[in-house]
Give the backbone structure.
Amino acid sequence: MGPLLALASAVSYGILVPQVSASLEPGGAPTTGGLLSRKAHFAAVTFLGQLGGLLLATVAALLLPADAVRPADLLWGALSGVGSGAAMHFLNRGLSQGAMSVVVPVSAVTGVALSVVCGVLLGDRPTTVAWLGIALSAPALWMVCRGGPEDGDPDGGGGVPEGLPASAGVALQYIELAQAGAAGGSWPVAAGRVAAVLVVRPAAARRPRRLLLPPVRGVQALLVGVGAALGLTRYLLAAQRQVLAVAVVLASLYPALPVILGPALLDERLSRQQILGLMGARVATVLLSLG
């Protein structure tokens, strides 16, 4: 059940989030939020996204059963939200500068690596088969995210200053949320969305007019956050049933899904690198599920 929930989390990120926008560019961009950041200020997109996530997380917390919501669980959720807010801030800032081919793979692969290392330090003991899947997932993610040379930042020089702090935020988001107990339901996710809103609010508040987006783009930004919060809720359930390292890697395979959908929905062509990455991601998924 744990692997399925982690994959469902990846589906939330990889299908629901990108498909809210019709402005996906060639190459199967893994995040609509970043593309919206090219049309509006990234701080506004990030802030509205976290508000959308807070709305979904609150509704989910009210609907899902919670036996006992402990302060410690809310604290873990809030710390996770700090990571989420920081990750989206730097990721969208990097993507708004056209550094998609660097900032996305750096944040995805490094974030997974940090999460796995921290999980092992906290006591995770993946099986040999799971380790093979983890090892294969890193190059597969890199190849899927890098796409083709047309995906922005052709010289590969930009994006690292944003990708590295984004990856640290991703790791913090996953590790801290996994520490929350099952009795708290999805309230840790809701607490995290509150913290994320508070983290990204100052950047948006420096110029209030940045928040005045056209209605369509504003709704798109809100829906991006809804999809992300849904993904985190599913990840929380997965982490309560599965080794953290495996749950993180499976949930982090979301960039593969819009790449798969690109040719079918947007008549895109995949690069050889992306095809190899997709094949590697598929094998890694099987190994992680068996492990």
In short: The chain has one domain: 2-20+29-290.
